[in-house]
Write a structure and sequence with these properties.
Largest sheet: 5 strands, mixed
Strand content: 15-25%
Shape: elongated
Oligomer: single chain
Helix content: 25-40%
Structural class: alpha/beta
Distance between the termini: 82 Å
Radius of gyration: 30 Å
């Protein structure tokens, strides 16, 4: 009596489990990227009004620091000590304002951090640092 022999069959690779794993990983990445977007509010249909205004653009304030260390607010010379009060006055009661820091690449890091600290004390001010693309 002879037992069945599997040695006569050619070896084969079953691709179905591998495809299932790939689709599972793909599904994971798609679902995880959907949660990366941050929604600030609920999606609603806003009512129409003929007197409606465009959304206000946040105020832009520019703080420049030269290589020598002099500070200016919107091209007007100032000091680091007076910067917080002047930014607060310029912003006023606007809900949000973007404060752009233009610092020369040769400026001391500590001075830039001091300017950032002064600006952060102003409520509603958001910081941005100006850069340029390398050539």
């Amino acid at each position: 009596m002879r037992l069945p022999d599997d040695t006569d069959r050619a070896p084969e690779v079953n691709l179905v489990p591998m495809i299932d794993v790939i689709f599972g990983v793909l599904t994971f990445f798609i679902m995880s990227t959907l949660f990366l977007t941050r929604s600030e509010g609920l999606p609603v249909n806003l009512p129409k009004a003929s007197t409606a205004r465009q959304q206000q653009v946040p105020a832009k304030v520019t703080v420049s620091i030269t290589k020598e260390g002099s500070v200016s607010l919107n091209r007007q010379p100032t000091t680091i000590e007076a910067l917080e009060g002047e930014v607060r006055t310029f912003i006023g009661n606007k809900p949000e304002a973007v404060v752009i820091i233009n610092a020369d690449e040769g400026v001391n890091h500590g001075q830039v951090v001091t300017v950032m600290d002064k600006v952060r004390r102003v409520p509603g001010a958001k910081l941005a640092i100006a850069t340029q693309k390398p050539k």
